[in-house]
Amino acid sequence: MTRNESMKETLKQATHNRARVVALLAFVLAAVLSMVGCSSPLAPSSSEGKLSVVVSVNQWSSVVKAIAGDNADVQTILSSPSVDAHDFEPQAQDVARISSAQLVVLNGAGYDTWASNAAQTGNAKQVSAAQENGTQDGDNPHLWFSAQARRALAKGVYEQLVKLDGKHKADYSSRYNAWLKKEKKVEEEITAIRDNLEKNSTTSEGLTYVNVCGHRVSCRLFGARLGLDGSHASRVRASRSK
């Protein structure tokens, strides 16, 4: 085998390994979000007498349902994870559902502007993950990966549910506290994974690498999802230079 052929084969294998790691990470993150949000059963099909709640994107629906439980009818406009919210164009019925809701839950930060615009046509109370978290337009809008943003959104949803439906405050409080316990466990597990990766990381040519499934992968693949961003790389390099 010539040198060029060897290099091509090595690149091909590295690409394959990277794809496996990215797929694995996506699966783990999806499982984490599902675990946090699946503490309550879905509301029955009949919504008579229940609080009407509309969630713009599916990334937040599990959190809202976990806190609202059987006391609210929770519907999600963009329920498919394969559709980019930036490109989504709501239909007339989508706008009508948002406009007639009592509570609208948004991501914000320019991610689902179509939903915030539709909410302005009604009288619904609004909870935006971006506003609750202090995130500005132009910042990273993928707030569901942030523990701080998840907690901020959950707190905002809980407070609005109690304001709108005070007679079920005990139910909302119980579910909210249960969600907080699950979220804390998830955060602890993520921290453990991050710490383990940091201990097993190496630095080469200004980049930090970790061993994942036996493969040496740049921390850039994990990004802010596990806190392994540029600041992490700097901390690792600094600790290794001492």
Structure description:
With 242 residues, the chain is an alpha/beta fold. The protein is 53% helix and 14% strand. It has helices spanning 3-37, 58-68, 92-100, 113-119, 129-133, 147-164, 169-199, 230-241; strands spanning 51-57, 72-78, 103-106, 125-128, 202-204, 207-212, 215-218. Strand 5 and strand 6 form a beta hairpin. The protein starts with a helix and ends with a helix. The model is unreliable at 14-28, 34-46, 221-225 and 227-242 (pLDDT under 50).
Helix-strand blueprint:
Blueprint: H1 3-37, E1 51-57, H2 58-68, E2 72-78, H3 92-100, E3 103-106, H4 113-119, E4 125-128, H5 129-133, H6 147-164, H7 169-199, E5 202-204, E6 207-212, E7 215-218, H8 230-241
Parallel strand pairs: 1-2, 1-3, 3-4
Antiparallel strand pairs: 5-6, 6-7
Helix pairs in contact: 1-2, 1-7, 2-6, 2-7, 6-7
**CATH topology of the largest domain, which one?**
Rossmann fold
Give the number of DSSP strands: 7
**Main beta sheet, described?**
4 strands, parallel
CATH homologous superfamily annotation of the largest domain: Nitrogenase molybdenum iron protein domain
Mean pLDDT: 77
Low-confidence stretches: 14-28, 34-46, 221-225, 227-242
Q: Beta-strand level of the residues, as a percent range?
A: 5-15%
Number of helices: 8
What integer value in Å does the Rg equal?
Answer: 21 Å
